[in-house]
Amino acid sequence: MASSSGNDDDLTIPRAAINKMIKETLPSVRVANDARELVVNCCTEFIHLISSEANEICNKSEKKTISPEHVIQGSTATSRTSAGASSQAGSSQDEEEEDDL
């Protein structure tokens, strides 16, 4: 039985699943443990972000259960936000590179 002791392991994707995904996706590449941990953290953050967006959409539509459509809409909203943030980050990085010249 899972306890709610605030353990972060209860809130992450199983490391074995990530290891399997990496091995299947990149069979001839060795991946450092730090990189594997970073992938776990990124996946966990992504799931939290999408589920939060889906929950907000679900609440706005006055539903009690998150449906696949809520998840898709949450993913779309997150993609737009991420794309905007990425383009802003890329823009500022370009400016820094120009300053270095």
UniProtKB/TrEMBL annotation:
Its main location: nucleus. Keywords: Nucleus. One of its GO terms (molecular function) is RNA polymerase II general transcription initiation factor activity. InterPro entries: CBFA_NFYB_domain, Histone-fold, Ncb2. GO terms for biological process: negative regulation of transcription by RNA polymerase II; RNA polymerase II preinitiation complex assembly. The keyword Nucleus applies. It is found in: Nucleus. Residues 12-73 form the Transcription factor CBF/NF-Y/archaeal histone domain. GO terms for cellular component: negative cofactor 2 complex. Residues 65-101 are annotated as: Disordered. This is Protein Dr1. It comes from Camelus bactrianus (Bactrian camel).
